[in-house]
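Title: Prediction job returns without error message
Component: structure pipeline
Severity: low
Priority: P3
Assignee: unassigned

Description:
Job completed but the reporter wants confirmation the result is attached to the right record. Sequence as submitted:
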Amino acid sequence: MTETLSGLVRFDQVGWWGVIDIVIVSVLIYELLKLVRRTHAVQIMIGGGLIILLYYASQFTPLQTLNWLVRDMFGYVVFAAIVLFQADIRRALAHFGRASFFRYLRRPEATGETVEEVAVALRMLAEQRVGALVVVEREIGLRNYVESGIPLDAEVSYDLLVSVFRPGSPLHDGAVLIQQDRVAAAACFLPLTVNPRVSKDLGTRHRAAIGLTEETDAVALVVSEETGYLSLVVDGEIEQNLESEQIRYRLEALVLHPGSTGAK
């Protein structure tokens, strides 16, 4: 038995490069599985695996029609995968770009003053039940979304944020985007999530916050005008009905100290 296994796996011929190769491929597969976990991509990958199994099954059986059909389909699989997985591919590339060895390329982080101003503004808006959506940029740039709104390039202050979202303000619809301690733009349009697991009770602001954080590493903060509840969204996951102090702690953890969880 041992001789059979050693014949199949020639450990003496693997070498260090072989070990490195296996480790890299294993890490890539692991990261890929983490990215597609609990998304619609899982079902698509299962369907693709089934087609591959049918192809190999038709190779060893007299199922000529099935073999011809599946073989001709392979020419279109790559293009179909790009269309179906475009959001997941973009998210995967962004995820790998946030690896620790790219730290020297990262932009300066927001300061504690910015976090405090945002937390105070959200508390005031929540008390008055004024709907709001504030996005704080982290490592992935939000230039495309900034260009969809009205440029401001102003210092972050709770007075400005409260004024922007005041009912009747021409900028109250859409999101405010914060880049490097500056309010880059207001009235910005964000992509809505298409995740079927998202509760149907969530409104447009919450869906836009989830949609943006599914594609980027930004932190989105939402004030519900119906309930006055504060929500924080990151990586497509929403935390609802938070207190203003919890928002501040979470923001500090995510923006100032990205390695911590900030749970309080």
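Comment from assignee: result matches the submitted record. Residues 101-108 have pLDDT under 50 and may be disordered.
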